[in-house]
Amino acid sequence: MRGALTIEELQQAVAEGAIDTVLVALVDMQGRLMGKRFQAEFFLESGWRETHGCNYLLATDLEMETVPGFKATGWEKGYGDYAMKPDLSTLRVTPWLPGTALVIADVQDHHHHDIPHSPRAVLKRQIARLEERGLRAMMASELEFFLFRDSYEQVQAAGYRWPTPISPYNEDYHIFQTSKEEEVMRAIRTGLNAAGIPVENSKGEASAGQEEINVRYAEALVSADNHVIVKNGAKEIAWSRGRALTFMAKPDTRASGSSAHIHQSLWTLQGEPAFLDPAGPHGMSVLMRRFLAGQLAHASEITYFLAPYVNSYKRFAAGTFAPTKAIWSADNRTAGYRIVGEETKSIRVECRVGGADLNPHLAYAALIAAGLDGIDRELDLEPEFRGDAYAAGRAREIPTNLRDAAEALRKSKFLRGALGDDVVDHYVHAARWEIAECDRCVTDWDRARGFERA
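^ that's the sequence the OP posted. Answer follows.
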């Protein structure tokens, strides 16, 4: 069996014994799949309508700590349930897990209203705002990661100290080296493709052991769902072959960072490209220029949703292909925002700010919201930057740490209007918790630097 499933096709597959397990998963704050494994017969009996999960699933950190201080839930409220309502349009086979199908669920209250701060709901709200204006967002994300010779169990036993990369040298576009890695990478490409995720290609990236996988663009919600399935599926496939991989933004001082470049374009509801005007600069329509102007105007405010952890900011460094300036340029990989596909229907904005650790639903939502503000306020696009953006002097800087990004988010009147106060406050609290946890921890670097010499 391959690809997307209807509920009727699932019924037939279960009757034939081809599928016995259905994963029902929500997307959590960190962009991970969290949920339950249903016996397929019970899913078909009632689980396809809804199931339930503890509401702390949208109020934890990476360690699944019960983080205090969230308005939405806590010990004083008893940590009740959210409803998980499967979105049957996401039902698919997962070929790398025998006899298993997967469906992504929306997170709702007991009155069947979406939970506003759930990542899918945050994105769906911005998609609805676009549709009110007769527009549809098409998105794609390029995902980079590091692949290692070691298994997850070996990496854990070694205290997560830098394991052995799958290759000994920079393998950017390197065919011979990536041929050695095909046991894992071919399995990832073909497995995801068979699950209905349209993988275009994979390639070596700019560090030893670094990979990139590219999935065909789609409507924003579909693209974001694909992104989280790619990350989960790649980990599961690597694990099944005794390898580990990581989507950390900066997994080691010696390594390049891993990005999630986000490609964006707007189309009319009738399927016409809204970004293309052959008479405009680089073929950019007025709508596209205003959309990009909005993203630049709010670049600092939306950075948290592109770089959500303390580690995320260690990726931003000159001369690394990770941007340091929120400026735009045509086909220029030193700029935070790059114009790609000039003067063709594929013209689009590539946001190069985000790391591979971002939550795609939240990142897409923030970018759409910023672009919509530029359209609604008819903002003029600043002149194009040309040259080396790392040497751009006092050009608009990307926040250099999570503390500054969280404060920009907290103060953002624009995001409070677009996302809602409760949503912004929820993620500000998550950012502050992440900062506090980092501040209190003693690291290997601290000990190595100060144990003897301090």
